[in-house]
């Protein structure tokens, strides 16, 4: 029998509703809290509204009542950068930009490339030589950005990007762009909305400090006085967490002024937290993204209900996982051989 009449109408309405939900733009969700007008072109890939996941095993291990993980890997390009990029590129388009430009350890690159492609604008991405994950470079190149590898580190690439942007030919879409920071505020708004109250602390990685500044701005605007804990790599210039391999954080003054507490985690702690998040909670993030968790597992963050932001997906920087995780054993296509190689294989079930 065919679907007709009211039933057909209901199906159509339902599928429209589902489509609306799946393609919800962050700018639409938080229009009243963002610097957009009715005529701002909305460049969206369906960012934001990411899962807030409870982590019961890690909470128990850390002696917490509640540990909440803001899973920013669910953003369209795999990191939290998309929250800011939707706004930065929408405003760039509104203001008649001819091209966008950024320096990046990889995630800003992929995000800028994606939103620029969506907007029909060229993107130029400067990367520190030899220091960006191959997966992020492939993503950025595939999205059509012009990738220029700079002879220098991230700080030098960012300084060059700022100098070029000052000429007015390219809009800088690093987090020095205030629209980036406005967009990134929304992670805090989502967490507070979903928990129904602010957590005892927000904990997140600290690279250049753009995201910490955004979180601080959100808390100010909400009139909420909750500790903000920013976790940096102890050896900023050498850390294996390439996303946060940033020597001199460009937002250091703003981070200090916001009263964020800065905590350092060494690479062993980062890797341990990163591995536990994968094995004990089923979440594979990139190593840098586990920085907040490293501080929490060390018992370095006060409170019994914490919100920890996991900033980027593990598939974006799989090199360390490939080095550290057990390689597969080679077996014949034979059930006995497979059972013998399976540690927890049990019959029945
Ligand atoms: C996964 O992409 O700086 O303190 O150029 O990719 O706001 O810099 C990325 C930084 C944390 C640090 N987690 O945030 C870039 C870049 C991930 C990141 C950070 C980054 P900020």
Bound molecules: ligand AN7
Q: Termini, distance in Å?
A: 40 Å
Extended strand count: 10
Radius of gyration: 21 Å
> Structural class of the helix and strand makeup?
alpha/beta
- Give a quick account of the main beta sheet: strands, pairing sense, barrel closure: 6 strands, mixed
Any descriptors?
single chain, 349 residues, alpha/beta, 4-stranded parallel β-sheet, 14% strand, binds ligand AN7
Topology:
Blueprint: H1 5-22, H2 26-29, E1 52-54, H3 56-62, E2 66-71, H4 81-94, E3 100-103, H5 107-119, E4 123-128, H6 134-142, E5 146-150, H7 154-165, E6 171-172, H8 178-184, H9 186-195, E7 201-205, H10 210-222, E8 228-233, H11 252-257, E9 261-265, H12 267-281, H13 291-297, E10 305-310, H14 319-324, H15 335-340
Parallel strand pairs: 2-10, 3-4, 3-6, 4-5, 7-8, 7-10, 8-9
Antiparallel strand pairs: 1-2
Helix pairs in contact: 4-5, 4-8, 5-6, 8-10, 9-10, 12-13
Quick structural gist:
This protein is an alpha/beta fold and 349 residues long. It has helices at 5-22, 26-29, 56-62, 81-94, 107-119, 134-142, 154-165, 178-184, 186-195, 210-222, 252-257, 267-281, 291-297, 319-324, 335-340, and strands spanning 52-54, 66-71, 100-103, 123-128, 146-150, 171-172, 201-205, 228-233, 261-265, 305-310.
Description:
With 349 residues, the chain is of the alpha/beta class. 42% of the residues lie in helices and 14% in strands. It contains 15 helices and 10 strands. The protein has helices at residues 5-22, 26-29, 56-62, 81-94, 107-119, 134-142, 154-165, 178-184, 186-195, 210-222, 252-257, 267-281, 291-297, 319-324, 335-340; strands at residues 52-54, 66-71, 100-103, 123-128, 146-150, 171-172, 201-205, 228-233, 261-265, 305-310. It has a 6-stranded mixed beta sheet, sandwiched between helices. Strands 5-4-3-6 form a 4-stranded parallel beta sheet. Strand 8, helix 11 and strand 9 (261-265) form a beta-alpha-beta unit. Helix 8 (178-184) crosses helix 10 (210-222) and helix 12 (267-281) packs across helix 13 (291-297). The radius of gyration is 21 Å and the shape is globular. Residues 17-22 have low confidence and may be disordered. The structure holds ligand AN7. Residues 79, 104-108, 175, 205-212, 243-244, 286, 288-289, 311-312 line the site of ligand AN7.
């Amino acid at each position: 029998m065919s679907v007709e009449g009211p039933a057909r109408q209901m199906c159509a309405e339902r599928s429209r509703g589902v489509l609306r939900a799946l393609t919800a733009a962050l700018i639409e969700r938080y229009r009243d809290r963002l610097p957009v007008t009715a005529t701002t072109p909305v460049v969206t890939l369906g960012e934001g509204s990411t899962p807030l996941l409870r982590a019961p095993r890690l909470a128990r291990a850390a002696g917490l009542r509640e540990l909440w993980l803001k899973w920013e890997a669910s953003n369209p390009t795999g990191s939290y950068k998309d929250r800011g990029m939707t706004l930065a590129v929408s405003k760039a388009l509104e203001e008649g930009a001819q091209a966008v430009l950024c320096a990046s350890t990889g995630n800003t690159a992929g995000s800028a490339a994606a939103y620029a492609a969506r907007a029909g604008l060229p993107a130029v991405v400067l990367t520190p030589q030899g220091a960006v994950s191959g997966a992020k470079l492939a993503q950025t190149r595939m999205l059509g950005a012009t990738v220029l590898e700079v002879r220098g580190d991230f700080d030098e690439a960012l300084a060059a990007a700022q100098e070029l942007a000052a000429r007015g030919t390219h809009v800088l879409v690093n987090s020095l762009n205030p629209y980036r920071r406005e967009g990134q505020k929304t992670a805090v708004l989502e967490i507070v909305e979903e928990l129904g109250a602010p957590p005892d602390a927000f904990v997140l990685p600290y690279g250049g400090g753009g995201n910490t500044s955004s979180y601080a701005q959100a808390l100010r605007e909400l009139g909420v006085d909750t500790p903000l804990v920013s976790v940096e790599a102890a050896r900023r210039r050498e850390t294996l967490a390439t996303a946060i391999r940033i020597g001199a954080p460009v937002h250091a003054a703003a981070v200090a002024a916001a009263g964020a507490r800065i905590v350092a985690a060494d690479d062993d702690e980062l890797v341990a937290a990163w591995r536990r998040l994968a094995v004990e909670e089923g979440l594979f993030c990139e190593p840098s993204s586990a920085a907040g968790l490293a501080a929490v597992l060390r018992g370095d963050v006060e409170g019994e209900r914490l919100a920890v932001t996991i900033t980027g997906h593990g598939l974006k920087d799989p090199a360390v996982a490939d080095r550290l995780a057990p390689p597969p054993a080679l077996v014949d296509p034979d059930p006995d051989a497979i059972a013998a190689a399976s540690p927890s294989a049990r019959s029945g079930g």
